Amino acid sequence: MWLNSEGEQWTSLTKIESSLCYLLTVRVIRARNIHQADVLSQTDCYVSVWLPTASNDKFQTKTIKNCKDPVWNETFYFRIQSQVKNVLELALYDKDVITQDDHLFTVYFDIAKLSLGEEVFMHFKCDSQRQEELEVGFALDNISGPPETIITNGVLVSRKICCLEVQVVEKKKKKEKKSLSMQGSYEGTQDIMLGSDLVFSSSSPAKFHYARYKQPTLDVTLPGKKRPPSLCSRVYDTGSPNVELHSIPSGENMILAEDKGFDLYAKAEDCLCSSPDHLDVRLGFDLCMQEQDFLCKRWNYVAPALKKVLQLQQDLLNHETPVVAIMTTGGGMRSLTALYGSLRGLKKLGVLDCATYLTGLSGTTWTMSNLYRDADWSQKDLDKQISEARKHMTKCKINSLSLEYVKYYKKQLCQRKREGRRTTFIDLWGLVLESLLHDGKDNHRLSDQQRAIDHGQNPLPIYTAVNVKNNYSTLDFKEWVEFTPYEVGLQKYGVFVRTEDFGSEFFMGRLMKKVPESRICFLEGMWSSLFSFNVLYIWNLSHSSEDFWHRWTRDQIDNIEEEPLLPLKPHELQTRLFTPPGPLGNTLRSALTDRLCISQEHNFLKGFHIHNDYLDNTHFCRWKDTVLDTFPNQLTQSDEFLSLVDTGFFINTSIMPLLKPERKVDVILHLNYSAGSQIQPLDQTCKYCSEQGILFPRVDLSEEDRKKLKECYLFDGAETPGAPILLFFPLINDTFQKYKAPGQKRSESEMEDGKVDLYGCCSPYSTYSIQYTEKAYDRLVQLSEYNILNNEDLIMQALRTAVARKRQIKK
């Protein structure tokens, strides 16, 4: 426990538990009335049995040829962790000799439905019209051995992992390269050289890190020889095991297999995992200690600034000081330029020092990363930074495609590949951005920005992206990812890594391979990945809805009947049937959902399991908004890489990190720089928050206002207790046409300076424009600054209301 900035006691939800393992028995009995998949004969059926939380192997029954009522009567055994959400996948296939096996359907069955010590025979009604049915028997029993120690935050589970050192000693003393593989381990496959001496050193043995109780299988491949049986930890299987890997005594050398030509030795060591402190990721939904410390330091700047701008007689106490955030939207170079003007306006009003957070996406992240190179940027006027940005915005960009730069790009991409990264076109885009916005190589990294907030002297910057999945539209699957100088994480799962470790390789929460932190230009490329669009996104832009295509791009999932009806239990999922699409459906779905290019980083959730009660976790449910949230086997922890894109591919907003209840944001200055409709991102945010149950003020704009927007709107959230106050600044050119400053009319000779064409067909401020004239740049900075200064009264009203509410809440 620790105290937050308001003196309240906070408790980490992460805990250590001793959790029992059970023995699950699955008996695949028979199927009935299976429809004919082949033209000339009945189906040749077999069933694939997969429980990814217990084993990485997919087991399968024998094939019953030319039969619509196949009988298998085959039994499989799994050691399962009781606190993990175990969903068994039973897939029925038609065996084909020439073509790929036909996938008929898959049944998803939640093991949480079963009662300990009871045997049950289930009849899954897969097709009521054809009366297709799959019959399976289940039993759940206690298993010998001590309980397993797990670490969990209520959504993710980290299990005990071991390091297995394996060495093959060939008796013929012939040195050759041999291959060992362990599915489900971090390493996967290792090549070793056979030697004549048994020496366990850091270099000679092959090492595998694996979850001790997840039935790992060790396979040995010796060239020119018949592959020996797998060495596995299955309790039982249709093929008997040689040894149970989880039973190998820790720290002792032992022989796993003996052969005429070689001996196989192993030594297992438990990896340290006695507390969350031993993990290299942070499991928890609260703010990290560094951010909590920052909030305390930032208060020393915010409280005096609020007292000054509001002309208060007394100092503000901690509990009376509202949390103010500046939120921006994307818009390429237009948003980069306009944000400079908005911030200069806020600086002149004294409001910039009142802000605790500054969030961005796409083009505004370019501005933010430039500003935070200066450790004291918000304590100075911004003229120098604006002038520097002007130089790069107006320079000729053709040099970025010169031979010299192309060679530099290739060298940098090769270096990233050597570091172990998966490079994509988005990395090249980041390097191009570097050349567009800087002189030469920029060695700045996101973690370097800690220097700009270590005393609380500037608002805390938060950059945003969304994690997506192949074969799914952004509407169907997206997960918010936030980046700060301290850490990177997904609030939905409550998992974060240190910023300097983002991009490194993790397994079950442990750092396995450290990769150098990316230079910030590569993050900027990912935060503004203009090239991650797909056909559905383009359709959505033109028709405002993807609904027309959902029948082609969504999985066909149906809840199915089962007999007998088992007693309803907490946390259980319904039994469902997945029917795969045909070749035409697959082709169309791929054409609609495949993205042109995507940024991929090593997944720091890799290896984690989903907790059995995850759907009852309030933090997960707040951000639960994807079609896969009730399919735990397919969530992000099962992916090798995170697939990250510009947040604008869902909603052009960076507001979501500010709506975390833990940040307690009271006032949000919504600076909108979108192209097209200025109100659309705000409307989309309101709709999303309403659907998710997230507190957000009601946006009530008249039709007249929507047709002709004003420079600023105040939504105080009075009708939604607990919601932040929202100040909405659309990027429009209204009174600026006649006024060069608040209360100062333009002369006839100055009227031309007020003509800023923001969104016309001949506008210089297109989202895809990469070069401005000096006049265009200056006018956009002046306009965005003016729109802030001209609405000082509304800003002060919002701040006064926030202070009054804080005082009232305390009373």
How would you describe this protein?
By secondary structure, the protein is an alpha+beta fold. It has three domains: 21-146, Immunoglobulin-like (Sandwich), CATH 2.60.40.150; 161-270, Immunoglobulin-like (Sandwich), CATH 2.60.40; 289-533 and 596-810, 3-Layer(aba) Sandwich (Cytosolic phospholipase A2 catalytic domain). The protein has 15 helices and 41 strands. Helix 2 links the parallel strand 23 and strand 24. The longest helix is centred in the middle third of the chain and has 21 residues, at 289-309. Mean pLDDT is 88; it is low at 1-11, 198-203 and 226-243.
Distance between the termini: 26 Å
CATH architecture label name of the largest domain: 3-Layer(aba) Sandwich
Which strand-content bin applies to the residues?
25-35%
The CATH superfamily of the largest domain is identified as: Cytosolic phospholipase A2 catalytic domain
Q: What is the CA-based Rg, rounded?
A: 30 Å
Compute the number of structural domains.
3
Could you name the key traits of this structure?
811 residues, Immunoglobulin-like, alpha+beta, Cytosolic phospholipase A2 catalytic domain
Quick summary:
With 811 residues, the chain is an alpha+beta fold. The chain is elongated, with a radius of gyration of 30 Å.
Question: Helices and strands in order, then pairings?
Answer:
Elements: E1 2-3, E2 9-10, E3 15-19, E4 21-32, E5 45-50, E6 59-60, E7 71-81, E8 87-94, E9 102-110, E10 119-127, E11 132-142, E12 148-152, E13 156-158, E14 161-170, E15 177-183, E16 189-193, E17 206-211, E18 217-221, E19 231-232, E20 253-258, E21 262-270, E22 282-283, H1 289-309, E23 324-328, H2 332-349, E24 355-360, H3 363-371, H4 383-394, H5 403-418, H6 425-437, E25 460-467, E26 479-483, E27 487-490, E28 495-498, E29 505-507, E30 510-513, H7 520-527, H8 535-543, H9 550-553, E31 556-559, E32 561-563, E33 576-579, H10 583-593, E34 599-602, E35 609-610, H11 618-622, E36 641-645, E37 667-671, H12 680-692, H13 703-707, E38 713-715, E39 725-729, E40 739-741, E41 744-745, H14 774-789, H15 792-810
Parallel strand pairs: 23-24, 23-37, 24-25, 37-39
Antiparallel strand pairs: 1-2, 3-12, 4-7, 4-11, 5-6, 5-8, 8-9, 9-33, 10-11, 10-32, 12-13, 13-35, 14-17, 14-21, 15-16, 15-18, 18-19, 20-21, 22-28, 25-26, 25-36, 26-27, 27-28, 29-30, 31-33, 34-36, 38-39, 40-41
